[in-house]
Amino acid sequence: MNTTPSAVAAQEQHATIRVLLISAAAALGGFLFGFDTAVINGAVDSIRGAFGLSAVATGFAVSCALLGSALGAWYAGPLADRYGRVQTMRVAAALLAVSALGSGLAFGMWDLILWRIVGGIGVGVASVIAPTYIAEVSPAHVRGRLGSMQQLAIVLGIFVALLSDAWLANIAGGASHLLWLGQEAWRWMFLVAVVPALVYGALVFGVPESPRHLVAKGRMAEAKDVLRQVLGLHSDAALDAKVEDIHQSLKTEARPVLRDLRGPRMGLLPIVWVGILLSVFQQFVGINVIFYYSSTLWHSVGFSEADSFSITVATSVVNVLVTLVAIALVDKVGRKPLLLVGSAGMAVTLGAMAVAFSHAIGSGADISLPGHWGVIALIAANLYVVFFGLSWGPMVWVLLGEMFPNRIRAIALAVAASAQWLANFAITVTFPSLAEMGLTFAYGLYAAFAVISYIFVLRAVKETKGMELEDMTG
């Protein structure tokens, strides 16, 4: 029987109410991530009309925040390693609050783009820091479930954004109609994001710093105090063993920088490439087309504006529910099996959507789905969201938070998250043009990426269920 100090520390660990609460507070960054990226869904048509945008310009106006997100994610790792996870989360909250205010009061397309990029930087920072922080404060046996809180917060943010869009458009009589203080409803869709940004900023003032960051900075007494709170470790032997485990995994390394990620495969370590490709495939299956453009899409194929908003909200509810299922399964079934099921399911449902839209009548933005094909497309889209929400939505964030060795975790996650935002940008900015070419081609392309993602997971992704962070290797 293994009775080493490290084994004793692992055996004593248990999830505390404290770790649940601070993980929830950190995951609120994911809520803002979801809210900020999805809120533009209800405003797309109004922005296009207000500023007279072409399809290409509309795609850029919707997706420009993602360039900011890539920038924020890139620098989040070095900032988190230098100033701490908690301080970096506070910066993200401030950027998101300022962006919401500026976007709501924008007077032109370029002004809107500027504020959307500022908010994107905040989203990018939050997307890196929340999973890193949650993974670093969680006991191994529940780390998957707590890490999935990030994705749950994201889908709740998407749901609340779409619900508020629908509510504001409904009471105004349309997204382009005037609402309070002489401002159009689409502007209020952005302005309401100030509230959760301020709540997030207030909550992160109450969470402790990551014990792994504290050990890296030599603040051992503080690290022990945090470990006592979050892991329920009370004996000095167990605390000392856990701190020593963390210290041993860090002590031979300097503060991580990009050159630490260099390796033999096309210039990077294999584990870094796995993280990058997980991020890219999460976006290349086209999920954010559903959440950024779905109201416009359903409107374009014959549904009323009100019904389009309702369908979009219903889809986001489905996303929340299946994420809850994923949280229940992740530490029982594992990460890899859920990813494989998700890839297979998305390939089939995206293929069904491609077939449905091959029967569309009309061209460009003026199309409709005859007979039962509209219903088939709607069912396929929601089943697609089910498979994504059960797998690639939460599992990628869980894996990115835990799969890298301690010495490179923050910087490797930053690189992977930056790749994710750039992939998101590529998919989002091209969709309006692809839609004008033909939705059959667009959804067929996303289905092909789902098939490739299945092969990638089968061959390259390793299971991390139940492993301690200190045991992760490159």
Automatic annotation (TrEMBL):
Matches recorded under SUPFAM superfamilies: MFS general substrate transporter
Keyword Cell membrane: yes
Domain Major facilitator superfamily (MFS) profile: 22-465
InterPro entries: MFS_dom, MFS_sugar_transport-like, MFS_trans_sf, Myo-inositol_Transporter, Sugar/inositol_transpt, Sugar_transporter_CS, XylE-like
Ranges annotated as spanning the membrane: 20-44, 50-76, 88-107, 113-134, 154-180, 186-207, 268-291, 311-330, 337-361, 373-400, 412-435, 441-461
Main localization (coarse): membrane
CDD domains: MFS_XylE_like
Keyword line: Cell membrane, Membrane, Transmembrane, Transmembrane helix, Transport
Subcellular location: Cell membrane
Pfam family for this entry, one: Sugar_tr
Membrane topology type: Multi-pass membrane protein
PANTHER family per the UniProt record, alphabetical: PROTON MYO-INOSITOL COTRANSPORTER
Family in the record: Belongs to the major facilitator superfamily. Sugar transporter (TC 2.A.1.1) family.
Protein's name according to its UniProt entry: MFS transporter
Biological source species: Noviluteimonas caseinilytica
